[in-house]
Design a protein that fits this description.
Layout: E1 2-7, H1 12-21, E2 27-33, H2 42-45, H3 60-65, E3 72-75, H4 83-91, E4 95-98, H5 108-115, E5 129-130, H6 133-141, E6 145-147, H7 151-165, E7 175-180, H8 195-198, E8 203-204, H9 213-224, E9 231-236, E10 243-250, H10 257-267, E11 274-276, E12 292-299, E13 304-311, H11 315-329
Parallel strand pairs: 1-2, 1-3, 3-4, 4-6, 5-6, 7-9, 11-12
Antiparallel strand pairs: 7-10, 8-9, 10-13, 12-13
Length: 345
Protein backbone atom coordinates (compact mmCIF):
# COMPACT_ATOMS: atom_id res chain seq x y z
CA UNK A 1 0.00 0.00 0.00
CA UNK A 2 1.45 3.36 -1.08
CA UNK A 3 0.88 6.07 1.53
CA UNK A 4 0.05 9.39 -0.13
CA UNK A 5 -0.01 13.04 0.88
CA UNK A 6 -1.59 15.73 -1.28
CA UNK A 7 -0.72 19.41 -0.97
CA UNK A 8 -3.12 21.66 -2.83
CA UNK A 9 -5.88 19.11 -2.46
CA UNK A 10 -8.81 21.48 -2.93
CA UNK A 11 -7.85 22.90 -6.33
CA UNK A 12 -9.26 21.22 -9.39
CA UNK A 13 -6.16 19.09 -10.03
CA UNK A 14 -5.94 18.19 -6.33
CA UNK A 15 -9.58 17.15 -6.23
CA UNK A 16 -9.05 14.97 -9.29
CA UNK A 17 -6.15 13.28 -7.48
CA UNK A 18 -8.47 12.50 -4.58
CA UNK A 19 -11.12 11.20 -6.98
CA UNK A 20 -8.68 8.88 -8.76
CA UNK A 21 -6.78 7.70 -5.68
CA UNK A 22 -10.00 6.92 -3.83
CA UNK A 23 -10.58 4.26 -6.52
CA UNK A 24 -6.99 3.00 -6.44
CA UNK A 25 -6.49 -0.42 -4.83
CA UNK A 26 -2.92 0.16 -3.69
CA UNK A 27 -2.91 3.71 -2.34
CA UNK A 28 -4.00 5.26 0.94
CA UNK A 29 -4.40 9.01 1.35
CA UNK A 30 -2.77 10.01 4.65
CA UNK A 31 -3.46 13.74 4.49
CA UNK A 32 -5.07 16.44 2.40
CA UNK A 33 -3.43 19.84 2.73
CA UNK A 34 -4.87 23.16 1.63
CA UNK A 35 -4.15 26.86 2.05
CA UNK A 36 -7.73 28.11 2.36
CA UNK A 37 -9.70 25.25 3.94
CA UNK A 38 -7.61 23.96 6.88
CA UNK A 39 -9.83 22.39 9.53
CA UNK A 40 -12.72 21.87 7.12
CA UNK A 41 -13.90 18.43 5.99
CA UNK A 42 -13.08 17.60 2.38
CA UNK A 43 -16.72 16.61 1.85
CA UNK A 44 -17.80 20.12 2.85
CA UNK A 45 -15.76 21.57 -0.02
CA UNK A 46 -16.69 18.92 -2.60
CA UNK A 47 -20.09 17.49 -1.69
CA UNK A 48 -19.67 14.47 -3.97
CA UNK A 49 -17.46 12.98 -1.22
CA UNK A 50 -20.17 13.13 1.48
CA UNK A 51 -20.19 9.83 3.32
CA UNK A 52 -16.96 8.75 1.58
CA UNK A 53 -14.07 11.12 2.36
CA UNK A 54 -14.82 13.28 5.38
CA UNK A 55 -11.26 13.85 6.62
CA UNK A 56 -10.47 17.40 7.68
CA UNK A 57 -7.93 19.27 5.59
CA UNK A 58 -4.67 20.36 7.20
CA UNK A 59 -2.53 23.43 6.58
CA UNK A 60 0.90 23.54 4.97
CA UNK A 61 2.79 23.56 8.29
CA UNK A 62 1.00 20.38 9.34
CA UNK A 63 1.81 18.87 5.95
CA UNK A 64 5.52 19.57 6.55
CA UNK A 65 5.24 17.77 9.89
CA UNK A 66 3.44 14.79 8.34
CA UNK A 67 5.93 13.98 5.59
CA UNK A 68 7.52 11.15 7.56
CA UNK A 69 4.24 9.24 7.38
CA UNK A 70 4.03 8.97 3.59
CA UNK A 71 5.75 7.33 0.62
CA UNK A 72 4.89 9.88 -2.05
CA UNK A 73 3.90 13.53 -1.98
CA UNK A 74 1.75 15.08 -4.69
CA UNK A 75 2.16 18.86 -4.93
CA UNK A 76 -0.60 20.70 -6.77
CA UNK A 77 0.42 24.30 -6.12
CA UNK A 78 1.10 27.36 -8.28
CA UNK A 79 4.63 27.79 -9.63
CA UNK A 80 7.21 28.93 -7.11
CA UNK A 81 5.54 27.15 -4.19
CA UNK A 82 7.11 23.69 -4.36
CA UNK A 83 10.80 24.35 -3.66
CA UNK A 84 11.11 24.02 0.13
CA UNK A 85 8.50 21.31 0.44
CA UNK A 86 10.20 19.23 -2.24
CA UNK A 87 13.62 19.59 -0.62
CA UNK A 88 12.30 18.46 2.75
CA UNK A 89 10.32 15.54 1.35
CA UNK A 90 13.29 14.23 -0.63
CA UNK A 91 15.56 14.55 2.41
CA UNK A 92 13.18 12.21 4.25
CA UNK A 93 13.17 9.64 1.45
CA UNK A 94 9.70 10.61 0.21
CA UNK A 95 9.15 10.58 -3.54
CA UNK A 96 7.71 13.79 -4.99
CA UNK A 97 5.35 14.27 -7.93
CA UNK A 98 5.02 17.97 -8.66
CA UNK A 99 2.02 18.93 -10.80
CA UNK A 100 3.31 22.49 -11.06
CA UNK A 101 6.00 23.99 -13.25
CA UNK A 102 8.89 24.26 -10.77
CA UNK A 103 10.91 21.28 -12.03
CA UNK A 104 9.79 20.91 -15.66
CA UNK A 105 12.46 23.11 -17.21
CA UNK A 106 16.06 21.88 -17.17
CA UNK A 107 17.56 25.38 -17.24
CA UNK A 108 17.27 27.63 -14.19
CA UNK A 109 17.73 30.77 -16.29
CA UNK A 110 14.94 29.83 -18.69
CA UNK A 111 12.60 29.14 -15.75
CA UNK A 112 13.39 32.50 -14.16
CA UNK A 113 12.95 34.33 -17.47
CA UNK A 114 9.52 32.87 -18.22
CA UNK A 115 8.14 32.66 -14.67
CA UNK A 116 9.73 35.88 -13.43
CA UNK A 117 10.85 34.54 -10.05
CA UNK A 118 13.98 32.99 -8.59
CA UNK A 119 14.37 29.22 -8.71
CA UNK A 120 15.62 28.46 -5.19
CA UNK A 121 16.24 24.72 -5.66
CA UNK A 122 18.37 24.54 -8.83
CA UNK A 123 20.41 21.61 -7.50
CA UNK A 124 17.31 19.41 -7.91
CA UNK A 125 16.83 20.11 -11.61
CA UNK A 126 19.42 17.58 -12.76
CA UNK A 127 17.59 14.76 -10.97
CA UNK A 128 14.05 15.75 -11.93
CA UNK A 129 12.43 13.51 -14.55
CA UNK A 130 9.93 14.96 -17.00
CA UNK A 131 6.93 12.72 -16.47
CA UNK A 132 5.41 12.24 -19.90
CA UNK A 133 4.62 8.62 -19.13
CA UNK A 134 4.58 7.11 -22.61
CA UNK A 135 7.89 8.70 -23.64
CA UNK A 136 9.96 8.63 -20.44
CA UNK A 137 8.79 5.43 -18.78
CA UNK A 138 12.24 3.93 -18.11
CA UNK A 139 13.52 7.09 -16.42
CA UNK A 140 10.31 7.42 -14.40
CA UNK A 141 10.72 3.93 -12.94
CA UNK A 142 13.76 4.94 -10.91
CA UNK A 143 13.15 8.61 -10.17
CA UNK A 144 12.47 10.30 -6.84
CA UNK A 145 11.43 13.71 -8.20
CA UNK A 146 8.94 13.75 -11.03
CA UNK A 147 7.90 16.89 -12.90
CA UNK A 148 4.39 16.21 -14.12
CA UNK A 149 3.91 17.83 -17.54
CA UNK A 150 1.57 20.70 -18.20
CA UNK A 151 -1.76 20.04 -19.88
CA UNK A 152 -1.05 21.81 -23.18
CA UNK A 153 2.42 20.19 -23.44
CA UNK A 154 0.99 16.72 -22.80
CA UNK A 155 -1.51 16.94 -25.65
CA UNK A 156 0.96 18.63 -27.99
CA UNK A 157 4.06 16.52 -27.39
CA UNK A 158 2.16 13.23 -27.62
CA UNK A 159 0.67 14.49 -30.87
CA UNK A 160 4.00 15.46 -32.45
CA UNK A 161 6.38 12.84 -31.01
CA UNK A 162 6.12 10.27 -33.85
CA UNK A 163 6.75 12.95 -36.48
CA UNK A 164 9.90 14.07 -34.70
CA UNK A 165 11.05 10.52 -34.01
CA UNK A 166 10.89 9.73 -37.73
CA UNK A 167 12.25 13.19 -38.72
CA UNK A 168 9.33 13.83 -41.04
CA UNK A 169 8.87 17.55 -40.38
CA UNK A 170 10.76 20.81 -40.45
CA UNK A 171 11.10 21.61 -36.73
CA UNK A 172 11.19 25.35 -37.46
CA UNK A 173 7.72 25.23 -39.01
CA UNK A 174 5.65 24.00 -36.03
CA UNK A 175 2.51 26.01 -35.23
CA UNK A 176 0.28 24.97 -32.33
CA UNK A 177 -3.28 26.23 -31.97
CA UNK A 178 -4.70 24.84 -28.72
CA UNK A 179 -8.00 25.28 -26.91
CA UNK A 180 -8.81 24.54 -23.27
CA UNK A 181 -11.84 24.44 -21.00
CA UNK A 182 -12.19 26.97 -18.17
CA UNK A 183 -11.03 24.57 -15.43
CA UNK A 184 -7.53 25.03 -16.82
CA UNK A 185 -7.52 28.46 -15.16
CA UNK A 186 -7.86 26.86 -11.72
CA UNK A 187 -10.46 27.21 -8.97
CA UNK A 188 -9.47 30.62 -7.64
CA UNK A 189 -11.99 33.42 -8.18
CA UNK A 190 -11.23 35.42 -11.31
CA UNK A 191 -13.30 37.82 -13.38
CA UNK A 192 -11.96 36.25 -16.59
CA UNK A 193 -13.42 32.84 -15.70
CA UNK A 194 -16.84 34.03 -14.52
CA UNK A 195 -19.70 32.44 -16.47
CA UNK A 196 -20.90 35.74 -17.89
CA UNK A 197 -17.37 36.66 -18.97
CA UNK A 198 -16.39 33.47 -20.83
CA UNK A 199 -19.71 31.95 -21.92
CA UNK A 200 -20.73 32.59 -25.54
CA UNK A 201 -17.16 33.64 -26.35
CA UNK A 202 -13.76 32.33 -27.33
CA UNK A 203 -10.52 34.18 -26.79
CA UNK A 204 -6.80 33.73 -27.26
CA UNK A 205 -4.48 34.44 -24.34
CA UNK A 206 -0.76 34.32 -23.63
CA UNK A 207 -0.14 35.03 -27.32
CA UNK A 208 3.58 34.80 -28.16
CA UNK A 209 4.37 34.44 -24.47
CA UNK A 210 2.56 31.55 -22.81
CA UNK A 211 4.67 29.85 -20.13
CA UNK A 212 4.15 26.38 -21.58
CA UNK A 213 6.13 27.44 -24.66
CA UNK A 214 9.65 26.67 -23.32
CA UNK A 215 8.41 23.36 -21.87
CA UNK A 216 7.06 22.27 -25.23
CA UNK A 217 10.20 23.46 -27.05
CA UNK A 218 12.47 21.68 -24.58
CA UNK A 219 10.80 18.31 -25.04
CA UNK A 220 10.28 18.62 -28.80
CA UNK A 221 13.96 19.52 -29.18
CA UNK A 222 14.94 16.46 -27.16
CA UNK A 223 12.82 14.24 -29.39
CA UNK A 224 14.04 15.85 -32.61
CA UNK A 225 17.67 16.00 -31.45
CA UNK A 226 17.79 19.54 -32.76
CA UNK A 227 16.43 22.88 -31.60
CA UNK A 228 12.70 23.31 -32.12
CA UNK A 229 11.20 26.80 -32.01
CA UNK A 230 7.41 26.91 -32.05
CA UNK A 231 4.53 29.33 -32.42
CA UNK A 232 2.02 28.49 -29.67
CA UNK A 233 -1.34 30.16 -29.17
CA UNK A 234 -3.76 28.87 -26.50
CA UNK A 235 -7.47 29.75 -26.43
CA UNK A 236 -10.16 29.65 -23.75
CA UNK A 237 -13.33 27.76 -24.67
CA UNK A 238 -16.61 28.00 -22.70
CA UNK A 239 -16.63 24.40 -21.46
CA UNK A 240 -15.58 22.93 -18.12
CA UNK A 241 -12.75 20.66 -19.21
CA UNK A 242 -10.82 19.34 -22.16
CA UNK A 243 -7.99 20.34 -24.49
CA UNK A 244 -7.82 20.11 -28.26
CA UNK A 245 -4.35 20.84 -29.63
CA UNK A 246 -4.12 21.34 -33.40
CA UNK A 247 -0.53 21.20 -34.63
CA UNK A 248 0.66 22.22 -38.10
CA UNK A 249 4.05 21.57 -39.65
CA UNK A 250 5.73 21.32 -43.05
CA UNK A 251 6.63 17.84 -44.24
CA UNK A 252 10.11 16.88 -45.39
CA UNK A 253 8.90 13.72 -47.14
CA UNK A 254 5.90 12.60 -49.16
CA UNK A 255 3.53 10.45 -47.12
CA UNK A 256 -0.21 9.74 -47.19
CA UNK A 257 -2.61 10.15 -44.26
CA UNK A 258 -3.09 6.37 -44.20
CA UNK A 259 0.66 5.72 -44.06
CA UNK A 260 1.05 8.27 -41.28
CA UNK A 261 -1.76 6.69 -39.26
CA UNK A 262 0.02 3.34 -39.54
CA UNK A 263 3.27 4.94 -38.36
CA UNK A 264 1.50 6.49 -35.35
CA UNK A 265 -0.21 3.21 -34.44
CA UNK A 266 3.14 1.45 -34.54
CA UNK A 267 4.82 4.17 -32.43
CA UNK A 268 2.14 3.91 -29.71
CA UNK A 269 1.61 0.16 -30.02
CA UNK A 270 0.78 -1.32 -26.62
CA UNK A 271 0.05 2.06 -25.02
CA UNK A 272 -3.22 1.83 -23.12
CA UNK A 273 -3.93 5.55 -22.91
CA UNK A 274 -3.00 6.80 -26.39
CA UNK A 275 -5.48 5.96 -29.13
CA UNK A 276 -4.84 6.72 -32.80
CA UNK A 277 -8.12 7.44 -34.57
CA UNK A 278 -9.14 7.09 -38.19
CA UNK A 279 -11.34 10.16 -37.63
CA UNK A 280 -10.63 13.50 -35.97
CA UNK A 281 -10.77 13.62 -32.15
CA UNK A 282 -13.28 15.48 -29.99
CA UNK A 283 -12.83 16.46 -26.35
CA UNK A 284 -16.13 14.88 -25.29
CA UNK A 285 -14.78 11.39 -26.00
CA UNK A 286 -11.89 11.79 -23.54
CA UNK A 287 -13.63 13.88 -20.86
CA UNK A 288 -13.10 12.35 -17.39
CA UNK A 289 -10.58 9.83 -18.71
CA UNK A 290 -6.79 9.48 -18.84
CA UNK A 291 -6.95 8.96 -22.60
CA UNK A 292 -5.29 10.91 -25.38
CA UNK A 293 -7.03 10.68 -28.77
CA UNK A 294 -4.93 11.60 -31.80
CA UNK A 295 -6.11 12.14 -35.36
CA UNK A 296 -4.36 13.51 -38.44
CA UNK A 297 -4.61 14.76 -42.00
CA UNK A 298 -2.05 15.40 -44.73
CA UNK A 299 -2.73 18.57 -46.71
CA UNK A 300 -1.17 17.66 -50.07
CA UNK A 301 -1.83 21.12 -51.50
CA UNK A 302 0.42 22.85 -48.92
CA UNK A 303 2.58 19.80 -48.07
CA UNK A 304 1.67 20.25 -44.41
CA UNK A 305 0.69 17.70 -41.80
CA UNK A 306 -2.08 18.55 -39.34
CA UNK A 307 -2.18 16.62 -36.05
CA UNK A 308 -5.10 16.93 -33.63
CA UNK A 309 -4.75 15.70 -30.06
CA UNK A 310 -7.52 15.66 -27.43
CA UNK A 311 -7.18 15.11 -23.67
CA UNK A 312 -8.97 15.95 -20.45
CA UNK A 313 -6.83 18.75 -19.02
CA UNK A 314 -7.50 17.68 -15.41
CA UNK A 315 -6.88 13.96 -15.94
CA UNK A 316 -4.30 13.09 -18.62
CA UNK A 317 -3.24 16.74 -18.45
CA UNK A 318 -2.75 16.71 -14.67
CA UNK A 319 -3.96 14.27 -11.98
CA UNK A 320 -4.44 11.17 -14.14
CA UNK A 321 -0.95 11.34 -15.58
CA UNK A 322 0.40 12.01 -12.07
CA UNK A 323 -1.18 8.78 -10.82
CA UNK A 324 0.01 6.95 -13.95
CA UNK A 325 3.50 8.11 -13.06
CA UNK A 326 3.08 7.06 -9.43
CA UNK A 327 2.12 3.59 -10.63
CA UNK A 328 5.28 3.39 -12.75
CA UNK A 329 7.47 4.67 -9.89
CA UNK A 330 6.14 2.07 -7.45
CA UNK A 331 5.95 -0.89 -9.82
CA UNK A 332 2.15 -0.96 -9.84
CA UNK A 333 0.14 -1.87 -12.96
CA UNK A 334 0.15 1.37 -14.94
CA UNK A 335 -3.61 1.53 -15.48
CA UNK A 336 -4.51 0.98 -11.79
CA UNK A 337 -7.06 3.57 -10.69
CA UNK A 338 -7.31 4.88 -14.25
CA UNK A 339 -9.67 2.43 -15.94
CA UNK A 340 -11.95 5.32 -16.85
CA UNK A 341 -13.79 5.91 -20.10
CA UNK A 342 -15.49 9.17 -20.94
CA UNK A 343 -19.07 9.41 -19.78
CA UNK A 344 -21.48 10.11 -22.62
CA UNK A 345 -23.50 12.13 -23.36
Amino acid sequence: MVKVGIVGATGYAGEQLVWILSNHRYSKIEFLSTHNYAGIGFHEIYRNYSGFIEDKCIDLDQAHDSLENIDVLFIALPHGKAFKLTEKALSLGVKVIDLGADFRLNDKAIYESWYELEHTAPSLLADAVYGLSELNREKIKNCNLLANPGCYPTATILGLAPLLHHKLIDVSSIIIDAKSGVSGAGRSASIASLFAECNESIKAYGVAGHRHTPEIEQELSRLAQETAVISFTPHLIPMNRGILSTCYSSLKATISTEELQGMYKDFYKGEHFVKILDILPETRWVRGSNLCHIGMKIDKRTNRVIILSAIDNLVKGAAGQAVQNMNIMFGIEEIEGLKLLAMAP
